[in-house]
UniProtKB/TrEMBL annotation:
Residues annotated as domain Sarcoglycan alpha/epsilon N-terminal: 34-123
Organism from which the protein derives: Chironomus riparius
Signal peptide: 1-22
Transmembrane regions listed in the UniProt entry: 296-320
Presence of the UniProt keyword Transport in the record: no
Protein name (record): Epsilon-sarcoglycan
Origin superkingdom: Eukaryota
């Protein structure tokens, strides 16, 4: 029994080792990369660096760079993956804190289809370089960040400024470069348009007269955030090289401005250090307690008072309005009159009231259609009861055995 258990355990260990070896992360150390502080470096990350095929799509492979033994990259180093080129870019400009030091960047590549992983460690040796005395900041609107990683475009851009700034041909370099969208700019409305890229160039040489003249020309535009409508004297030089410049974002920072900015930041840092105090945590019993019953009562009482006031006000308004409509109106008796006399045309002066019994030319034994006239001793009738029509006298003549004609003459 023990022998069978030992055999089964050994087979399980062998199977686990085979599975782990099949998915084991290979390890490779690249050559040392030499970089300088205050100067941009760019490292292209290709699938071939991890022994992957270069034909893999950008949805199939994933990179995760970090400082060796740390969860993330240094604050001055960034990583971007270009879907357009199916390449990753590791870039940044080292700060003085990392001068004369060596760091190691670990990059893990994952093939999401086969779950195969590869691991590469790239060492960086950082050398000291003095900060440039004069800097030029600009925004190029017709390119994305990955387009400016081409050495040909970088060479053309430096060539333009060497023409405008001949004194900087010895140490002109790109100090900083980043996508405009990552720095807070809006994405273009059309996806086909470029996002734009922010580029900083620096040199220790003195500014040329052409740059000083250009600075005076664009200084009124510093209050605007963007202006692609502006044209300058050097516009043709940049356009001929394929660069569209946003002149509102074009700035020339001299040594005096740089020193002033650094002194202000140093003073603010020292003042914050002096005024800062050691923070001591508070106990749980010292935390303020929230009384929910009072808040619930207030939240119910205030709307209830307002609702009662509104209901009372509407009730008073409706009551007064209703009483005004129900006030009794004085009823005056309506007296009906008719013309008196035997004239067929109505008189203009003599009227006879219907309050008196109508007895002229009337007889109780007449052939009138109705005999409902007012008589004394009869039940009390309405004083305004409609009077009986006048009497009619009729003459009946017969004109044959089958036809008869009835003729009535009004007796008025």
């Amino acid at each position: 029994m023990r022998e069978k258990l030992l055999i089964l355990l050994s087979l399980t260990i062998i199977a686990i080792n085979r599975v782990s070896s099949a998915h084991d992360t290979s390890f490779k150390i690249e050559s040392v990369e030499q970089i300088h502080i205050h100067e941009l470096f760019t490292l292209m990350i290709k699938p071939t660096l991890f022994n992957f095929s270069n034909s893999l799509s950008n949805e199939q492979i994933r990179y995760r760079p970090s400082l060796l033994g740390r969860p993330s990259l240094p604050s001055w180093m960034n990583f971007q993956f270009s879907k357009e080129r199916n390449l990753g870019y590791l870039y940044g400009s080292a700060t003085e804190k990392y001068a004369n030091r060596e760091i190691k960047i670990e990059i893990i590549a994952l093939n999401k289809l086969t779950y195969e992983t590869q691991r590469v460690v790239i060492p960086f040796r950082i050398s000291f370089k003095p900060a440039p005395m004069n800097r030029i900041e600009m925004k190029i609107t017709n390119y994305n960040w990955e387009h400016m990683t081409d050495m040909g475009r970088v060479k053309n851009l430096k060539g333009i400024f060497m023409e405008l700034w001949p004194e900087s041909y010895r140490d002109l370099s790109i100090v900083f470069m980043e996508s405009a969208v990552r720095l807070g700019a809006r994405l273009p409305l059309k996806p086909s348009n470029r996002e734009g890229v922010i580029v900083h160039l620096g040199s220790n040489a003195q500014l040329s007269s052409r740059l000083i003249e250009l600075d005076q020309e664009i200084k009124p535009l510093s209050k605007l955030s963007t202006c692609t409508f502006k044209r300058t004297k050097v516009q043709q030089i940049f356009q001929s090289a394929g660069f569209m410049i946003d002149w509102c974002a074009f700035k020339i920072i001299t040594q005096d401005e740089t020193s002033t900015m650094s002194e202000e930041s140093t003073v603010q840092h020292e003042s914050s250090m002096l005024t800062s105090k050691t923070w001591n945590g508070i106990a749980k019993d010292e935390l303020p307690a929230r009384n929910y019953s009072e808040e619930l009562a207030v939240s119910i009482a205030i709307p209830a008072v307002i609702f009662s006031f509104v209901v009372a006000l509407l009730t008073i308004i409706l009551c007064f309005h209703h009483e005004k409509f129900e006030q009794p109106k004085s009823k005056e008796p309506v007296q009906m009159v008719q013309y008196s006399g035997t004239n067929k045309t109505p008189p203009t002066t003599t009227l006879k009231s219907l309050h008196d019994p109508y007895s002229d030319n009337l007889s109780l034994d007449s052939d009138s259609p109705s005999t409902n006239i007012f008589q004394e001793g009869s039940p009390k009738l309405n004083a305004y009861y409609r009077p009986n029509p006048p009497a009619y006298t009729g003459k009946i003549t017969f004109q044959g055995p089958s036809t008869s004609t009835v003729r009535f003459d009004k007796d008025i």
